[in-house]
Amino acid sequence: MYKNYLKRIFDLIISILALPFWFIILIIIGPIIYFQDNGSMFYNAPRLGKEGKIFKMYKFRSMKMNAPDIRNEDGSTFNSEDDPRLTKIGKFIRKTSLDETPQLLNIIKGDMSIIGPRPDLPVHRELYKGNEERKLEVRPGVTGFNQAYYRNTVSWKERIQHDIYYIDHLSLWLDIKIFLKTAVSVLKSEDIYVVGKSKKTGVGM
Question: Which of 37, 64, 106, 201 could bond to 111 as cystine, CB 3.0-4.6 Å?
Answer without folding.
Answer: 106
